[in-house]
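dumping these here so i dont lose them again. two proteins, back to back, each one seq then structure tokens. dont judge the mess
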Amino acid sequence: MFSATLFAQLINIAASPVLTRIYSPEEFGYFSFYLSVCALLIVYTTGRYEFAINTVKTEAESQQLFKVVTVFSTLFAVLLLAAEQLFYEPIIRLFKLEGASSLLLYIPLTLLVMGISQGLNYYLNKYKAFGVLSKGKVLRSSVTSGASIAFGFTGLQSAGLILANVLGYAVSNVYQTRVKKIGFLFNLREYKARSLARTAAQHKHYPLYNSTSAFFDNMAVQAPVFILMRFFSEAIVGFYSLTIRVAAMPISLISASVAQVFLSEIAELHAKGRSFLPVVKKVLLLLAGIGILPVVLLVIAGPWGFALVFGEKWRMAGELSQILAFGYYAKFVVSPLSVVFFVKQKVKLLSMIQGIRAISTLSVLWASSVYLNIKGVVFVYSIHELLFYSLYLFSIFHISRDNDHIRS
């Protein structure tokens, strides 16, 4: 799974120099806004019922939960489409989408295929179909990148990137369904309203509580795109999105992999009643050392590197990456350690921290955007990220010390 994720990311990164020469920063900006909206709304699209698929004991329950995910995704997409039509003009004016108003129509469709994809991922994960999951992930990345390039030459502009994204999800969903021969999960005759409603009610804590926590976490991540779209131009959003694509995504991939190994080790120590604080310190120092070189490279050669690889018109993205490098570094070092909250069963505290972060991020970005230029806003945002992750690290050490009196 890790290898597939890495390979899929490499495909995206390898396609980027081509895509940046086909699509303009403005078109990337609209596409980034579309992705951010989808990332924010997907937590409500499925009701987070996909997480319950792995917790139930019987095959019948797993199938019912998958069907609940499919129904929720369909209903949410239909309701969102209706809401977009009802508030079409206000939304267009709020986010200055006059140049790409049609992207609103693609968001419900995207959420539908994303919702089904998440349901399939958890259903196949339950039965350890990792090979199919891995191939599906690589296939989605390949189709998306290839179609983005192909559509770019047809003059579809930002719609080309959006349609390619939808196509990637759709092809991956069809592939996984056919290979595992689980097409019966989409047999509408088996969708009994009362039975599905009963299953949804049994697991209602997922949409009631899990969705809200995930929404706040995603809001903090996506806030820069929304605020920059509101106060600056779509080109600025495009520059920012390229830094995410090139710098932040690989960081997130490495962090997630480290977090999985770290979680396994500290969970074992905690179960034995032993202190895991020394392990926290060890991983912290290891990540701090690994992350120094990429940060130095971004700070020293960011503008030059982006202009060379992606084209001169993307130099501004490199200039923004110089400022954002320190915030990325803090996230890279601290994020993997956050699994401590789950080991110590401090999920409520984590949710509260995520909520505070979402509110503070929005407030800082909004206030700075009113008075500062784009580099000033990005600088303030980077400082905010450094301060947040410093406090986050303090909290991690605090709860890790709870059992430090026990000798390791």
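---- next one ----
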Amino acid sequence: MIFRVLLLSLFVFLSLQHSAFSIQPSALSLQPVYSLQDCINIALKKNPEILASKATVNKSFFKIGEARSGYFPQIDLSLGYQRSYLENRISEEYSKQYSAQVSLTQTIFDFGKTSKQVEIQKQLYRATEWQDRDAVLQTIYNVKEAYYSVLKAKKQKETAQEVLRQAQRHLDLATGFYEVGLKPKIEVTKAEVELSNAKLNLITAEKQLSQAFLNLKVAMGTVDMPDFDIKEEDYVVRKLDENEAIQIAIERNPQLQAIKFNKQASISTEELIKKEYFPLFTGSANYGYINEEFPLNKKWTVLLQMSLPLFSGWSTKYKLAEAKADTAYYSYKEDSLKQQITSQIKNLFAQLKEASQKIETLKSTLKQAKENLDLAMGRYEVGIGSSIEVVDAIVLYEQTNTQYWQAIYDYNVTYAQIQKTVGWLE
């Protein structure tokens, strides 16, 4: 009996050394390895959503210059040649006329309409800047979420590989026991089924990892870039104060700040529309030459003009009502968004606390699951454990490992959501 046990132990040792599914050292990869900050930097440079947002900011900035043009005179040059026919003309039926003139028009006083238009465009520009900041924060969050998803998928693949190794080890042991008559055939069959499931799980894990990398490339805005690997990100418990985060969010949340500047622009628009009831004082001057034949006769005119709108079909009244409705809309949106931000941050802090507690609990549970797996496999090796005990231990280890890395992912993504909501770019 002792001889049979020694023979079996030698067989198991040799089979484990030559297992087809044992993990071998991999060749050095030539792929670049990016950190989380590297991925974020690439996204900020190449993501088309970011580039489109920057273009919108530039467009809004140029509108300020367009509004300022009202301070300056408008100068036009015109050259003309006219040929006309007059039926009652005595000398000849046709006449011709040459002309050349420079005209200048300048607003003298408009009761602050131009300055108010410039003010409105500045406020809209600031709103666009905050909208751009929101686009940046959203892109950073998308990259972080995708990056942590890749890390989770990598850990799930490693878990699947470890489960496959353990399943192969179990099958080798069961086969050895069966061949020496210590275990029935059903033990081998169960181990084979377990190994097949482990292979399927590894295939799924590899697919999920590939999809996670693709999602990361999409978030970076570089879907066609060559394959790369990522660095591990250490799990760090963040010390945050919920009330302080809410206060900072009210002051720095880009969506809220954009609404505030849009509301200010609506208030300024009301003031601008009211100025349409006031007169407009302009001056114009023309200098040029005109005649039917050369040389042309000199001509100039100077005009000071006041225009006062008397009736415009109540268009000013309705434009004013529209601007007031816009102001009310942004006021309500501001109050609503403040409530949403407060509620969202409270929920995110609750999720962050839950994930942190899960991590601490699962950390010890994972250690126990690994010890339980080693113990079950050790008992099976010496012939005193059961196949069911080994399978249960493998399943428990796989589930606990998956739950642990899911909790790590949830914690990191939740913290990234808090950063986005509060308005932190780091």
